[in-house]
Amino acid sequence: MDDLFNLKGEDNNNNNIEDDYEEISFTDSNPNKFKNTNSNNNSNINFYNNNTFSFNSNNIDDEDYENYFISNTPPTTTTTTTTTTTTSSKINNDINFHFNFDIYDNSTVHINNKTLSSIDNLSASNNNIINNISSNFNNINFNDSIENNNNNSNNTPNNNNGVHSFQDYDESLLSNFNNNSYNSFNNNTNINNNNKNNNNYNYNNNNNNTSPFTTTTTTTTTAITSPPTNTKTKTNTNTNTNTNTNTNTNINTNSYNYNSNGGVDLLNNTFANSMPGDNSLSNSGLFDEPSSVLPKTSATTTTTGVTTNGQGQQQNGKTTTSSIFQSFSSIKHAILNTSTANGLLNFSTDKFWKDLGEDPLLNQDQAPEFEKYLRLGEDIPQYAWARRLDNNYPEHKHFQVSMWQGLKLVGMGYRMWKYVKKETSSGRIPIMDPFNLPKPGPIMGVPIGGIGSGSINRGWKGDFVRWNLNSGLVSNEIVDVDKFSVYINFDNNPNNSSTSSSNSSTPPPPQFSNNIPNSFNNNNNNGFDNSLKSKQKAVVLYPGKPKSNLNLDVWNWGLKGDSSCYFGLFPRAWTVYEEPHPDIRLTCKQVSPVIPHNYQESSYPCGVYVWKIENNNQYSSADVSLMLTWQNSIGTQSDQDGGHFNKYFTYGDNNDSSKQQSPSSTGKKNIKGITMIHKKEQKCTLPNGNTKVFNDPMEYSIAVMDEPDVDISFCERFETTSRLDAANLWYTFNKKGELENNKDSRPSAPKKPIGAAIAAKVKVAAGSSKTIVFCISWDAPITRFQMGSAYYKRYTKFYGNQGGNSQRIAHDAINNWKHWDNQIIQWQQPILSDPELPPFYKMALFNELYYLVDGGTVWTHGSPIDPLPARYPTKTQLKQEDTTDVNHIGRFAYLESLEYLMYNTYDVIFYASFALTMLWPLLEISLQYDIADATLLDYGINWEGIHSGHLMPRKKQGTVPHDLGNPGEDPWKRVNSYCIQDVSRWKDLPSKFVLQVYRDYLVMEDKNFLLQCYNVVEEVIQRTLEHFDLDHDGVVDNEGFPDQTYDVWPATGCSAYSGGLWLAALKVAAEIAKILGFNEDESIYNAIFEKGAKSYTKKLWNGHYFNYDSSKSVHSDSIMSDMLAGHWYLLSCGLKSYMTFDQALSSLSIINEYNVRSYGKEICGAVNGMRPEGTVDTTCLQSSEVWIGTSFSLAATMILHHMDSDAWDLVKGIVNSSYQKWGFQYQTPEAWDQNGCFRAASYMRPLSIWSIQWALQKRKYFDFYDESLKSQQQSNNNNDNDKNNNNNNNSNNNNNNNININNTNNNSNNNNGSNSLLN
C-alpha cells in the first residue's frame, strides 16, 4: 500500500502522472442470446404467466446473507450497443426478490406429503440441485461456492415431460415415477448457479428481450382434500426465433442455502399453490390466527394468459376461480399451518419468513413483536448464530512469530521454560504454558451453567466438549458417552391412529422412506415403509464417531447432520433435527438461567434441555424415546480413579428423600433421574510446602420431568469403557426405546469409569407434538485453589454449602425454566427488535457473553475454615467477606483467558468490563472494591521478571495490581501473579483504575462508592506524577520497555496510548473531586490536565494523527489502532476530551484506512500497528496482530463520532471472521492475523463489544461533535471579549468622552468579531 496521505511529507509534484481509470464495458455480441436454441438446456423454472418469483444473486457475497430485501419491481437493465448498465439499490444490490401476484388464481393445490416423499434421485453432486425433499419439504441446501460452473442438463436426456397423477397408489406407478419422472424434474428444476443466469426464475420474462416473444400458460388445478389428489398441467411456449414447448412438474419447496462459511442464505422458495390476485402485499393480518382446518372443497382453476413484452406484463388474460383464500395473509397462514389440514403438504416456510425478517415485508408489519419472534414453533431468534451439523471449519492454527521476532524472544522463552518447570515441580500451576497449548478446535457451542457455578460447554454438533468444574482450571475434554440419542418407531397399523378419519372410504397412502438414512432404511422397497421394521430404530444425535472411547462404536452413530441445524444466542441454544426420520422433527432448546440484574438464579449450576417432538406424519402415531447418557466425570482424569457411584431417585413427592413440600402444595411437578456422586480428590500444596488432599463434595444429577404420558426408564450403572455394557445398553434402548430399570450402586473400580442413562418415551399422535424436559445439574459447593484456599460458591447462599443438592437444583430448574426463558426474552427483545442495529452485531453481542460463564468464573459466598489460617501476614490480605449482611454480593473473578490463568486482569478488564457494568453492576462494584484494597497492599517480596531476567517487586503499595491471582496458586490472597514485566512501573494501570471507578459510578450513582475509592485515586495519581512524569509537563513518560497492556511492544517518552489514558484519568479525577465537593483537588487536577494536553499535542500530533511515541525510534510514527483509548473513555463518560473533534476524526480516518481496510484481503479487525507507508509494523509480535477486543472498542469510538458505516464494517469483518470463516464462536481469541492464525483462545477482552452498546446509548445524551461546536463558539466569544476589553482600554487612554467612545468601540469590536468568526 502506498503512502495515501503523504504522511512522510515526500515531494510528489510529478505533473506527468495521471490517474488512469479502466473503463469496463459489456458488449452484447450476441443479439439473439435470448433465443432458446437448445431444447434440453432448460435450467429455468417457469411458473404461471406473470406470477414470478425472481431471485438475482449474480453478485452475492457469502457473508452478506443478512442483506435480503423485497422490491416491488425487478432491476432495470438497459442494453446498448456498447455497454450494459444495471440499476438497483446500492445497499442491496446483491439480491432482489420480486413478487408479482397479479394473476395468481385463488385455488390451492393439495399434494399429499407421503406420496411426494417417495420422490427419488433428487440429490445432486455439489448440492446444487434441490436436495433431499423430505416429507415436510423443509430442505436445507448447501452450496460450497456461489461461483459454480454452469450445470448443463444435456448430460441427462429429458425422457419424460409428462404430467403425473398421484390418484393411484399402486407400486408400479410409483416405481415408474421414481425411476423416470424426476429425470425430467432434475433437468427442469435445477437451480443454475452460473453467474450469468443464477437463480432467475421465468428467465425470459425478467430480461429485456430485443425481440418480442409470446408465452402461453394454461393451468388446470384440481384439489380435493381426503384423500389428497393433485393433477396439474402446465404448458409453456416460448417463441423467439425457435419454439420450444416444455411441460414442467412444479413441486412446492422451501429451500435454504447455507454458504460455505456457515451463513444461512435463502436459496429459493417456490410456491406451486395458486395465490390471490393481490399485488399490493398488504401487511394487514399477516399474523392473524389461521383457520384450524381448511374447508373440504374441490376447486378447479383455469388461467389463460398471453405475454408479449420483455417485462413479463400480462397483455391479455382471463381468469376463472373458485377461491378459498381471500388475502395474502391467509396464504401465509395456510403455508405456515398446513399441518392442521389432513393430507396437506407440511411446509417449513417459517424459515423462509424468518430470513425475510430484515425486509420491508416484515418491517412494515404492525403485528406484535412477540409474534414475529416465533420461529419453528419455538422462539428461535432470527439473529441466532446458525450452523448445519454436517458443516466443518478449518482446523485452528496458533500464531507464528517471524524469525526476527523469535530471535528477540529467545531469552524470554528460556526464562519462561524455567518458570513453567519450577511451578509444576512445586505442585502449582503456571499462569501460562506456551509449550503445551490447548487445541480444542472449532467445536464450541453455548455453555450451560450459571455465573461462578462452573459450566459445561455443549458443542454445536451435540457433544459436551469443555468442562469448567475444577476451580478455574478448564479442561477441553470430549467425553464420548455424554450424548442424547433418539428412538423412533411408527405404528404399523395407520388406521388405528387417533387422527385418521374413520369414515374415509379411501385408505391412506403408503409411507415412503427414500430420504431416511441407512440406519432407518435397510431394505430397498421402492420407498415403501418397510423401514419401520428395520433393526436400527435408535441413533445417537451426533454427526460423527466416538473420539477416544472406541468401545462405543456398537452404538448407532449414523446421523448425517445434513438435515439438522444448530442455533446459538447465549444463554440459549436450539438444535433442530429433521432426521433421522423425515416425519419426526426434534427441536432441542437449551436454557441456562443467566439473567441480567438477577443475582440469585444467575448463579445456579444447571442447564435445561426442552425437547419438542413433532410427528408430521398425518396417518400414523409414533413411539419416540429420548435417552441421555452421562459419564460420572468432571472432564478430567479423575473419572479413572475409582470410588464413584450412581443412584436412581424420584424427587418432589412425599417420600422421605424429598427436601421440599409435596407437589400438591407447591404446584411443582416431580422429576426422576440419576444422581452421580463423584469422588473428587484434590492434592494441594500449602504455602509452608506441605501437601494436603481435600475431598470436597461433588455430584451430578440428570433428570426428566415426570409427566403422566411420559414413560421414564433408566440404567443406573454401566461401565463406559466396557464394550459389552455399551452393547447391552444400546440393544435394550434400540429394542423398545426403554431401559431395563436396573439398579446397581456399586462404586467404580480404578481405570473403569462408569456412567448412567435415563430415557423418556412418549407416544406422539399423527400430526401432533409432545414435549420432554431434561435437566443436567451439579452441586460442587466449594471452589478450592491449588494452594488450599477455599470459597463457597454463590449459589450455596440459596441451597446450602454441604453438598448433595443437585436433585433439588434440577427440580427447581425443570419447574422454573419457562420463567427464566421469559426473562431472557424480555432482556434481549429490545435489542433484537431494534431496526437500526445490524444482524451480525445482535448475534455477536449476546454470544460473546458466554465468557462470563465459561471463562473459569468464580463467584463466592464466604469461605470454609482455612486449614492454614496464618498463611500470610494480615496486613497483606484483602478485607474479609461479611456473609451476615443480607445484601452481601460476594467476590467475583474471571480469567484473562483459558490459556492465561490470571483472575481479573485489570488492564484487560478496562475493555471487557462494559458487559459486567451494564448487566451485573453489583459484581463490577465488588471487583473494583477488591482492586482498590489490593492497591494499598505491599508484600515486600521480590521475584525474577521473565521478560528482563531482573528482580522486581511482586506488589508495592500505591500500585494498581495487574491481576488478583492465579487459580493455580492463591487468588485474592496473593495478587499480581503476572511475573513477566514489572507491573509496578506500568503506565496504564493507574489511569485505568481512575477511569473505571468513575464510569461505574455513572451506572450506580453511589457517592459512597466514590468516597471509599477516592483515597486510592489520590494516592495513585500522586505516585504516578512523582515517578513517571519525568519532564514535569503533565504527561507520564514511558520508560523504553513494554510498560502497558501491550507487554512486548515498548514505548519511550510521551506515548499516544499511555499519555492519552493519563490525561483522561486527570479529567475524571477532577470530575470525581467536583462531585465530592473537593474544590481544591478539582482545580489542581484541571490545571495538570490543561498543561498535559498542550504538551501531549505538541509532542505527538503530526497533523494527521498522534504518533506512537515521542522517541526517535524507527516505529515512533507508527499508526496505533488504540491511540484514542483515553479519548474513547472520556467520551463514554460524557466528559470533555484532551483533543479536538477534528483531531479525533482525522485520527480515526487514518486508522480506518490503514489499520482496518488496508490489512488483509478482507476486513478482520484493526491491526495494532501500521507504518505510514502502508506496511504492517513488525516491531514485535503484538504490533502485527489484530486484537479483537481493542477493535471492538475502536468501533465504539467510531460510533461516538458518527462514523457508523465504518464502525459496522469493522464489526462485521470481525464477526464474520470469527463465527463464519474461522470457527472461533464461543472461544473468541485475544488476537489473530489475516490468515486466521490465533493467540490465546477464549479471551476476556472481546467482551468489549458491549462498549459499542454503551456508545450507542451514550450518544443519545452526549454528542462530542455538538459539544465541540459549543466549546468552539464559547472560545470565540471569549476571544471577542478579550479584544473588546483591549480596545476599550485603548479608547479610555485616548479619549475623554468615555461613554460615547466606549459605545462606539464596542459596536466596532462586535462587528470585527463577527467578521473574524466568518473568516
Give me some keywords for this one.
1319 residues; alpha+beta; five-stranded antiparallel sheet; 27% helix; disordered C terminus
Concise account of the structure shown:
The chain has 1319 residues and is an alpha+beta fold. 27% of the residues lie in helices and 18% in strands. α19 runs parallel beside α21.
Topology (SSEs and partners):
Layout: E1 53-56, E2 70-71, E3 76-79, E4 84-87, E5 96-99, H1 113-116, E6 138-142, H2 171-188, E7 214-224, E8 229-239, E9 243-246, E10 253-258, E11 264-270, E12 298-307, E13 314-320, H3 328-336, H4 350-355, H5 360-363, H6 369-373, E14 385-388, H7 403-408, H8 410-425, E15 447-448, E16 455-458, E17 464-468, E18 483-490, E19 538-540, E20 564-569, E21 572-577, E22 584-591, E23 606-615, E24 622-631, E25 645-651, H9 663-666, E26 671-677, E27 682-685, E28 691-694, E29 699-705, E30 711-719, H10 723-736, E31 754-764, E32 769-779, E33 782-784, E34 790-792, H11 796-799, H12 806-832, H13 839-847, H14 851-854, E35 858-859, E36 892-893, H15 906-919, H16 921-935, E37 942-944, E38 951-953, H17 989-1004, H18 1007-1028, E39 1038-1039, E40 1052-1053, H19 1056-1076, H20 1079-1100, E41 1119-1120, H21 1125-1132, H22 1141-1156, E42 1169-1170, E43 1186-1187, H23 1188-1200, H24 1204-1221, E44 1231-1232, E45 1238-1239, H25 1249-1258, H26 1264-1294, H27 1298-1318
Parallel strand pairs: 2-5, 6-10
Antiparallel strand pairs: 1-5, 3-4, 7-8, 7-12, 8-9, 10-11, 12-13, 14-20, 15-16, 16-17, 18-19, 18-24, 20-21, 21-22, 22-23, 23-32, 24-31, 25-26, 26-29, 27-28, 29-32, 30-31, 33-34, 35-36, 37-38, 39-40, 41-42, 43-44, 44-45
